[in-house]
Amino acid sequence: MKISNTHLEGVVVIEPAVFGDHRGWFMETYNEKELLKHGIDVKFIQDNQSFSAAKGTLRGLHYQLNPKSQTKLVRCTKGAIYDVAVDIRIGSPTFGEWFGIELTEENKKQLLVPKGFAHGFLTLSEDVEVQYKVDELYAPQHDRGIIWNDPSIGIEWPMDITPVLSVKDEQAPLLKEAQNNFKYGE
Q1: Which end of the chain is less crowded, N or C, counting CB atoms within 10 A of the terminal residue's CB?
Q2: How many Å apart are CA 96 and CA 117, to the nearest integer?
Q3: Planar angle of CA 66, 11, 96, nearest 5 degrees
């Protein structure tokens, strides 16, 4: 398992070792001991899976307020996505900055998105399945979002299309208007 830091503190890319032969392949998608070696101490309590039929479906940018904030470990098991994390920790030197990576069923990469970050993804193919682990249960009263095309963030989505959005995501506020109780260093 290869773990690479990004320019956003706590956001890491995980590349599982894939072992293949004439039968197919095998990989460990999660190994607590390996993550602990890299200082990642997260106790995941729930697995989620989403399906998006249309290419160009955008889900996000989502987060949950404290005390129900979530760390997510995201992977694409069918198709391809462009996965994004945005630092929304007030006082952070990288506040409002983002990191994006292509996650596909072929490259098997995963993105760890810690608490204090908004998360979203854009489907790059049809019939996409995304699976992710979280360390806190879904809490609708703490669920929040930021509009996907906030110019102050400036995410460079890899497709020039009008995305397929939920009503909730269409109506999400700008970062400067979003409710946020994350403080850098807490």
Answers
A1: C
A2: 9
A3: 70
pLDDT at residue 143, rounded to an integer: 98
142 is catalytic: no
User: Can you point out the beta strands (E) in the chain?
Assistant: 2-5, 12-15, 18-21, 24-27, 46-52, 58-64, 72-78, 80-87, 98-104, 110-113, 117-123, 128-134, 143-145
- For all residues of the chain together, what is the average pLDDT? 97
Domains in the chain (CATH in brackets) are 44-177 (2.60.120.10)
pTM: 0.96
Exposed, middle or buried, 65 (CB in 10 Å: 0-12/13-18/19+)?
middle
Catalytic annotation, pick one of 62, 63, 82, 119: 62
Does the active-site annotation cover 132?
Answer: yes
Classify residue 147 by its DSSP letter: -
